[in-house]
Specification:
The chain is mainly alpha-helical. It has one helix and no strands. The chain is rod-shaped. The termini are far apart.
């Protein structure tokens, strides 16, 4: 489940500027 958490963090960071 570690990768899933990392993917979520990356997605949030990528959507932050939006």
């Amino acid at each position: 489940m570690g990768r899933f958490a990392i993917v979520l963090c990356i997605a949030l960071l990528a959507a932050a500027p939006l």
